[in-house]
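If you are new to this repository, start here. Below is one unmodified record pulled from the training split, so you can see the exact layout before writing a loader.
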Amino acid sequence: VLLVHGRWPSGDGGDDCIHLRTSTQSSYYYLSLVSYLQNLLATMMLSTVTDCSRAVHPFAPASTSARGRSGSFLRFGAPRFNEDFIRVHRCDDHGVTHDLSLYYRIYHPSLMNSQESPPLIVLHGGPSLPSSYLYPIVQHMPTSRSIIFYDQIGCGQSSQPADEQLYSIEKAVSDLKELVRSLGINKFHILGHSFGGVVAYEYAKSSLEDDEQHQNCLSLTLSNTPANMVLSHEESGRLVQSINEEFILENSTAVLPVSRIVNDRFRKRHECRTENAPEPLVTAIQSRGVTFGPEAVRDYIAFPPAHLHSSSPRSVNAPNKLMPPVLLIRGEHDFVTEECIKGW
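And here is the target side for that same chain:
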């Protein structure tokens, strides 16, 4: 048993610190039992601190519960995160409600209620890739705000029902609303990658169109997110065809099948421009979940909020509501080309 007490009269106590201010002193005092324990355990050549009091969440899938993954984890040498499950409900075309488990992970959880640095919610792409391929961005973000990831229904550690009736962009938006409500956050930013950007945009749009008051999304960042899925697929086909023609002109005598060579070149030019795909991306692709019907995603076209149309009956409900600020970013060589994002 280690009993540790300490304080810093000034300076930064680290990410896992508790911040206190007294009424008689203007300086902050920082208490960080976690940092002390990690330093002491490192000295004793122990590498991991695990919260033994964590409980298995009742909605966790059986395979996850068996591993005891739910709860709070303190990983030596890595950012602290909490992970858990919430229950979401989806109805099929027959009106039958299905209870599903949605997995989430929060890095720097002690800062969830920060007023100066509201949390960032990260939405992964796919649909069908788990959020794990985006975890490395935590290492490149400031430690002054919480970062929230979650696996959309159909992939990762969340429920993966086979019934395609349970999948749609609208249902994905509803899940995000339920996650925000469950976490009790009122102000936050959203980063959506690829298809995750579609869900992020539709979430912000629906918050304006609904009569009820929703949580305050401060900003949207749409990364490599097409405004028109049909055009995006056409552009991808054009890029693949260009590589095919290039391969024919080279008159290559490579041993590998043509399709494999073309796919490898496409990946290195337009998906991930490294010689070898990073391990988190490879793992995410190998554990790809349920890809729901093309009519739900491939026909998607982004439209402005309904209240911005003067002919819409909803325009009188929220004449002064505005979308949050939006940052559009894309990789220069990404298969989501410049044409694909013009619609935004």
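Two things worth knowing about this chain: The CA atoms of residues 136 and 280 lie 8 Å apart. The mean pLDDT is 77.
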